[in-house]
Amino acid sequence: MRILVHDSVTPVFDPDLLVDYLRSEGLDATTDRPPAACDGCVAFDHDDALLDAPWVHAITAGYDNYPAERYREAGVAFTNSTGIHGTSVGESVAGHCLTFARRLHRYRDRQHDRRWERDPYDAAFTLDGERACVVGLGTLGRGVAARLDALGMTIVGVRQTPAGVVGVEEVFTPDALHEAVTDARFVVLTVPLTEATTGLVDAEVLAAMREDAYLVNVARGEVVDQDALVAALEEGTVAGAALDALDPEPLPEDSPLWGFPEVLVTPHCAAMTNDYHEAVGDLVVANARRLDREESPVNRVV
Ligand code: NAD
């Protein structure tokens, strides 16, 4: 199978790492062959030339930046990388929650000024016994739920069907989102960006949250009404937020979100990890073999 590792992957990892990995698995991979002359292309972003390839694989789980319908019309098989981010994003979210609870962000801030100063003793809390609401219980949501559960938290979740999920005490459907977030100390967003999830966390949802609650967004920036979030932070109707996904990205220098002491901004890196290219590579190899046998690929979007 002739595979192109598209240049667009460069911001995530060195394309040659994936080329070497795919070659070690017996695929004819390269970074410089036209998509039309390939059996498959691996990309981080869309480029119209990819419409000439028989198969395109996105190295991300989210594919809102790809024109999936145009792929369908062009007869391009389009697959994504859902299924590989549960551990990395789960650990990132556990880190966010621990940081707020144990006040680590404030001490790191003061370290920049070489300042030895404690928060009031009752500013800190333990995650043990606190409640988290995980919105979206797919790969990310389950990875988050498992890790927060292991830290002693009570987990509730929101998913499209009310069926139970291991480690999640109560499952709400999307129409009961307000009820689901009401008692949570942390509300964690792990849904894909779709028409239904655009602006999902609006002023009303933020108002339904506890005043001491933190919002954690590892989904997509557009899932949150950012102006409403800024207003809620200014008015103190929520305690803070950890934002790995923002709208737009990069977050502009003049965004007020940079300035809140109780906001952590990370540059869409919750899933980054040193073996990311191998996890993507394993999906590409598995799908190349399936396509070779004329079977349907896994993680097929269209
Ligand atoms: P997934 O497909 O495994 O899970 C998504 C889940 O959300 C599914 O179970 C789906 O049924 C559910 N869902 C969809 N709409 C919903 C709604 N309105 N309410 C409740 N649940 C809903 O995908 P995943 O791998 O878990 O990734 C989820 C999203 O997270 C991606 O689409 C991407 O945008 C984002 N993501 C971000 C990072 C990062 O680095 N921050 C990394 C990976 C994925």
UniProtKB/TrEMBL annotation:
EC number(s) from the headed UniProt entry: 1.1.1.-
Highest taxon of source: Archaea
InterPro entries: D-isomer_DH_CS (IPR029753), D-isomer_DH_NAD-bd (IPR006140), Dhydh_Halo (IPR054891), NAD(P)-bd_dom_sf (IPR036291)
D-isomer specific 2-hydroxyacid dehydrogenase NAD-binding domain: residues covered: 95-270
Keywords on record: NAD, Oxidoreductase
UniProt keyword Magnesium, yes or no: no
GO MF terms, alphabetically ordered: oxidoreductase activity
Gene3D superfamilies linked to this entry: NAD(P)-binding Rossmann-like Domain
Residues in coiled coil: none
Name assigned to this protein: D-2-hydroxyacid dehydrogenase
Organism: Halomarina salina
